[in-house]
Amino acid sequence: MHSRSPLIALYDIAGAIKRYPLVGMLGWQDVRARYRRSALGPFWITLSMGVMIATIGLVFGQIFNTPMQEYLPFLTIGMVLWAFIASVVTEGSMGFIAAESVIKQLPIPLFVHIMRLIWRNLLIFAHNIVIVPIVMLIVGKSIGWIALLAIPGMVLLVLNLSWIALLLAMLCARYRDIPQIVASVLQVVFYLTPIMWVPKLLPARAAIYLLDSNPAFHLIEVVRAPLLGQAPTAANWLAALALTGIGWLAAVIVFGRHKRRIAFWL
Amino acid sequence: MASIKFDNVSVDFPIYNASGRSLKKRLIRVATGGQIGADPHGRVVVRALENLNFTLSDGDRVGLLGHNGAGKSTLLRLLSGVYAPTHGTAAITGEIGSLIDISLGIDPEATGRENIYLRGALLGMTKGTIGKRIDEIVEFSELGDFIDMPLRTYSSGMHLRLAFAVSTIVRPEILLMDEWLAVGDESFKHKAEQRMTEMVQSTNILVLASHARDLLMHTCNRVMWLEHGRIRMDGAPAEVLAAYFGD
Q1: Is residue A48 part of a domain?
Q2: Which CATH number fits domain B3-94+208-245: 3.40.50.300, 3.40.50.2020, 3.40.50.11690, 1.10.10.10?
Q3: Which residue is closest to A264 within chain B, CA to CA?
Q4: A101 and B77: CB-CB below 8 Å?
Q5: pLDDT value at position A252?
Q6: Mean of the per-residue pLDDT values for chain A?
Q7: Which residues does A contribute to its contact with B (CB < 8 Å)?
Q8: Strand pairing partners for B177?
Q9: In a designed cystine with B70, which of A119, A132, A246, B226 is the match (CB 3.0 to 4.6 A)?
């Protein structure tokens, strides 16, 4: 096997998938370690998220002059998804750096560390998602069968976050200023993407820049739209799919080239 | 069947200091036409191991000898598959186990029992295997009821006994050790010694880095003396040890 071929990357990823019990255990342990000895445990995040959504909902609902029945569910799903995306990306940039002691001691597939952080954040996401039905109940909005489309949407989102986390983990292990850059870029993306503001209020010309050419919008939309009772547009699905393909291709090539060097960068 | 074959293996460490590692430096280097860098890639490089050639096969009990910085730990990491050689090829067949840093991955907030599963999973054991052997591990560690208490309540001796009990349950084909493990008080030490001997006997290949002359003399049938990343001497323990310790 050539020492820099994409095969190395695929071999590592396959090895990591085979060790899913380890990933599951480490992810659970991370969540438990964070909230051990606290009575509410991970529901603390749910609670603070709920309070934040209620506040933003009240203020911006007034500013945008949108009916709460429409705005609050939109904001809630967007915020819960964004919290998941943002923490996977931020923790992804520390993915290998944080696992240094394990990487330098045990020959465990490196992708295990990426899967671990994704799993950990999925668990936290599962706690946060509880807010969505509560808000739906409060504003009296019903969820239809179309909501099931959010499942493939979520799969696409997680697949995309996986390659992003893998690429960032490598990049940040090599160049230590990237985590700071990532943090500020995330902030910018948050405001550029319709999470707090509703796309309807945008002038038609700006929509082309802020919606169609914004990958984050498509990724959020494939999960959010079905939960709000609409099917995502074909453009949303295509963009999310294309992003998955291109992103994974790039990640596998880069990971294959540098996998053997990562231990030396730490 | 286990074997290790090193063919012209070298390991170079890139040295990144705070600025060499930053993106700014990289960009400036591009702008200035690559004059800052020292080697062809523009990096400062330290060669940790140079042109290692050796073959190990079943029954080999190899001692690694050498001063600090001679490359012993790097060689152990190469053997464990954590590092890949920068040049040359290292062909390793056989399941590898290492007794280096046996407390790695242990969570102080989790209970002893949870930590057994955690540490076991890191070592590649399945939940089922650990479940079957957990009573044995608990009994060996002599922790009694403490096994269901958080690890932070343990004394350092108890901590080590637990780590030792889990880590020595595996029987790898290639066993890597950095110094002999000695844990616990007198009575436990005796038991631990026995467990270690058992483990060493059942493994196909042992690689043990140590400075202890008697230990290497008794345990190994071959000793490699590393100096500045190269093999200075490789042969029978008596011969190499005599040369190293200067008599």
Answers
A1: yes
A2: 3.40.50.300
A3: B13
A4: no
A5: 95
A6: 90
A7: 3, 19, 21-22, 25-26, 29, 32-33, 36-37, 101-108, 174-178, 260-261, 263-265
A8: B208
A9: B226
pTM of the model: 0.88
**Per the structure block, which two tokens stand in for B118?**
């955690």
Q: When comparing pLDDT for A210 and B110, which is higher?
A: B110
A218 pLDDT more than 90: yes
Question: Which of B116, B117, B110, B120 has the alpha carbon at shortest distance from B149?
Answer: B110
Nearest to A105 among B21, B23, B101 (CB): B101
What is the per-residue pLDDT for B37? 36
Name every residue in B having a CB less than 8 A away from some CB of A: 13-14, 16, 18, 21-24, 26, 77, 80-84, 96, 98, 100-101, 104-105, 107, 109-110, 114, 117-118, 121-124, 126-127
CA distances in angstroms from A59 to A55, A71, A133, B6, listed in the order given? 6, 11, 21, 67
A-chain CB neighbours of B105 within 8 Å are: 102
Domain boundaries, given as residue ranges, for chain B:
3-94+208-245, 112-203
Report the distance separating Cα B205 and Cα B92, nearest Å: 11
Inter-chain CB proximity A33 and B109 less than 8 Å = yes
Altogether, the residues listed in chain A come to a count of: 266
The CA distance from B14 to A265, in Å, is 8
Question: Could you give the C-alpha distances from A143 to A95, A136, A178, A183, A230, in angstroms and in order?
Answer: 36, 8, 40, 34, 10
Residues of A in contact with B81 (CB under 8 A): 107
The parent domain of residue A241 ranges over: 6-265
What local confidence, expressed as pLDDT, does residue B247 receive? Answer: 67
pLDDT value of residue A77: 95
Partnered with residue B45 across adjacent β-strands are: B14
Q: Are strands B44-57 and B61-65 parallel, antiparallel or unpaired?
A: unpaired
- Structure confidence by residue, pLDDT tens digits, A148-205: 999 999 999 999 999 999 999 999 998 888 999 999 999 999 999 999 988 888 887 7
Q: What's residue A1's pLDDT?
A: 43
Which pLDDT does position B30 carry in this prediction? 55
Beta bridge partners of B64: B209, B224
The mean pLDDT values, 10 residues at a time, for chain B of 247 residues are 89 70 62 45 75 90 88 89 89 88 83 90 87 90 89 88 89 88 79 88 91 88 89 88 84
Question: Residues 6 or more apart from A216 whose CB is under 8 A from it?
Answer: A85, A189, A192, A193
- In whole angstroms, give the CA distance from residue A230 to residue A224: 9
Domain count, chain A: 1
- Pairs across A and B, CB distance < 8 A: 71
| Distance, CA of B234 to CA of B225 (rounded, Å) | 6
Q: State how far residue B46 is from chain A, nearest Cα, in angstroms.
A: 12
Q: Which of A25, A178, A261 sits opposite B121 (nearest CB)?
A: A25
* Residue A1 is assigned to a structural domain of this protein: no
